[in-house]
Design goal:
This protein is mostly beta strands and 514 residues long. The longest helix has 12 residues.
């Protein structure tokens, strides 16, 4: 099994007309089990320098909870995704980023970007795409063929994927796979070893590039981006993490990891500018003081060892505990199939361990270490899905598409943090549900958590489970071609219940209600 750690990410592409032709069965009732005030109590503090509290950054918000308040309808929905109701783009489309204007969103892929008009049910580009200058040719017809083909062998997949995306498709994932939009609607993305700033709804283009070769002799690929609560841009590469003003006018403050210490995941940020990042050696909390990026314990920073296994953390860190009554935790899946919680701030006692608790994932085995593209956090609960790739072809894009003929990743589990015992309790687990590569996402008002998987009999689907008992309450069925494959992506919903499905073909607005 191959572990591919997309800079969590990940890339946001464009698919840009509303998807039609969807057939719906079952009930369209929306489950709403908590009010909006309760929702606000258990969500991260709004960051005044990020364009939107939800979808302003990859993994939804600065805390990386993959949670939103938009409703998810219950029932079964048969949805047809075809070239006729999509504008194709890619290669991978991880999320569609909110701007400061609710009528517009940024659509960004590994090859190009544009702005979308999403007002009043629309989903269309405001202007032509801006193509990244050095992304390489993107062939729409070949892209279509690679995704629509009815495959029976890995070699056929490899042939079509290489024809569509070049001889090293995975290398395209070094651009446009993490993003954050600021309050001015400028959006920052990873661009290889650089950071690019993209601007202007009406004429999308580069504002400028942060070329880190000016500041370090060993630049490595950017894997994470965020904005502090005082408005500074944070960037993480595989070997260092830094902070700079959003205009790129100053010299960045850079903290280097130890020799042989590598980071392949993004980071999360709390309201006090604590920055949490897991490398292949240790879990770190750094603190932006307003002047320095500090690893000093006097500033609240800390370092903790954890069970790294062969590759380090299997997920990006996510924050838990936002209400004053809750324990303040940061959680990861470690390298040995454990869900691990660390105390974010002060330890509960002088001799306490930084690790608050760890629990083995019941659906995982030592023979197949789990990779999870992200965690879904709601109140004191955390949901983990197995997003591992099993084709082992040596290329993540080939592996993702090969899910249709290779065994799909399976298994998910929901835990609840117990404030009294200071431990996780397993609420439910499912060892047979297909979870493929999409990050899980939870509606905090419907209490439904969703995954994306493939079943040989019926094809690709989004499966929604009741947050409290694991019962399947939602199915969106897409069929057997790869248009229903949300490779490495975030599932999103609009306030009216429409699905924003970030397919490997490109994002699409799916009408979920009459």
């Amino acid at each position: 099994m191959k572990h591919f750690y997309l800079p969590i990410y990940i890339c946001l592409s464009l698919l840009i007309t509303s998807c039609g032709g969807d057939k719906k069965t079952g009930h369209r009732k929306v489950l709403v089990t908590e009010n909006q005030e309760q929702h606000r109590n258990f969500t991260p503090a709004p960051n005044p320098f990020i364009a939107a509290d939800v979808y302003g950054t990859t993994q939804v918000n600065s805390a990386h909870t993959n949670a939103f308040a938009a409703p998810i309808p219950t029932g079964t929905f048969n949805i047809e995704l075809t070239p006729d109701n999509q504008i194709l783009s890619g290669v991978v489309n991880v999320a569609t980023i909110a701007t400061g204007n609710p009528n517009y969103m940024w659509a960004i892929s590994t090859d190009r970007f544009t702005c979308l008009n999403v007002s009043e049910g629309n989903f269309a580009p405001t202007r032509n795409f801006f193509n990244f200058p050095d992304a390489g040719a993107f062939h729409v017809d070949k892209h279509r063929e690679a995704l629509q083909h009815n495959y029976t062998s890995i070699e056929a997949i490899r042939k079509n994927v290489f024809s569509a995306y070049g001889n090293s498709p995975e290398q395209r994932l070094n651009k446009g796979t993490v993003a954050v939009c600021d309050k001015n609607t400028d959006v920052f993305i990873n661009y290889g070893t650089q950071v690019a700033c993209l601007i202007d709804f009406n004429r999308p283009r580069f504002r400028n590039l942060l070329d880190l070769t000016q500041f370090t002799t060993t630049p490595t690929n950017i894997v994470g981006l965020g904005i502090t609560y005082d408005g500074m841009l944070v960037f993480a590469s595989q070997t260092y993490i830094g902070v700079i003003d959003r205009a790129f006018d100053t010299i960045p403050k850079i903290y280097y990891f130890e020799p042989n210490e590598v980071c392949n995941n993004s980071f999360c940020i709390d309201e006090n500018n604590g920055i949490y990042i897991a490398t292949n050696k240790q879990m770190r909390k750094l603190v932006w003081t307003g002047q320095e990026l500090s690893a000093n314990t006097a500033d609240g920073a800390w370092t903790s060892s954890y069970k790294t296994g062969k590759s380090g953390a299997a997920s990006t860190p996510s924050l838990m505990g936002f209400d004053n009554s809750q324990d303040k935790l940061v959680v990861i899946v470690d390298g040995e199939n454990n869900l691990v919680a660390f105390w974010r701030n002060e330890l509960p006692s002088p001799n306490a361990s930084r690790i608050a608790n760890e629990q083995k994932l019941s659906f995982a085995t030592d023979e197949k270490p789990v990779f999870t593209a992200g965690l879904a956090i709601h109140n004191n609960g955390v949901f983990v899905a197995n997003n591992s790739l099993y084709a082992n072809t040596g290329d993540a894009i080939v592996d993702a598409i090969a899910t249709v003929i290779k065994p799909s990743a399976q298994g998910c589990e929901r835990f609840e943090w117990q404030d009294d015992t200071k431990k996780f309790k397993s609420i439910f687990a499912n060892n047979t549900i297909s979870t493929a590569t999409m990050k899980p996402a939870v509606s905090t008002t419907s209490n439904i958590v969703c995954v994306n998987g493939f079943y040989p009999e019926s094809g690709w689907e989004v499966t929604g489970l009741d947050w409290n008992n694991g019962k399947i309450v939602h199915r969106s069925l897409f069929g057997k071609n790869n248009y229903g494959n949300a490779a490495f992506a975030t599932l999103q919903y609009f306030a009216n219940g429409d699905m924003l499905f970030n397919s490997i073909a490109g994002p699409c607005r799916v009408r979920m209600t009459e």
